[in-house]
Amino acid sequence: MLAAAGLLSDRFRDVLALYCQTWAEYWAHHETLAAEGYVTVAGNGTKIPHPCVGMKDKCQSQLVKLQRELGLTPAAATGLLPPGTISTATGAPQGTGDPISEMTLRGRASLKPTSAA
Are 37 and 53 in contact (CB under 8 A)? Predict the structure, then answer.
């Protein structure tokens, strides 16, 4: 899908690299929290959120932003499809050749309201 939309060129390399780096950081925080828990004890003995909670949340927010930039959300993906891949009459997919895009589009087409008979 990214290649078809021309988003794998050198000019998008930095955004894709940032996405990969943020993904790796997100999972590192996730694994730390799975092993150590979401609560830790401060020096004075009080329970506080583990520092990785905030870092994981920041990574998650950044991932969502980058996913939108790269067309990796269902809403953004439809904007990456070549013209003519969605029927203007029905909203149904027109053979994009990408099974994920077609599945996403079929799901959206089935959500369109129907007129009352």
Answer: no
Q: How far apart are CA 54 and CA 113, in angstroms?
A: 40
At residue 83 the predicted structure's pLDDT band, cuts being 50, 70 and 90, is: low
Half-sphere CA count of 32, side-chain side, radius 13 A: 16
Structure tokens at 21: 């780096």
Top pLDDT among 111 and 36 is at 36
Reference 58, options 33, 28, 30, 26; nearest CA is 26
- How far CA 83 is from CA of 28, 70, 108, in Å, comes to 39, 18, 17
In this predicted structure, the answer to whether residue 115 has a pLDDT above a threshold of 90 is: no
Global pTM?
A: 0.59
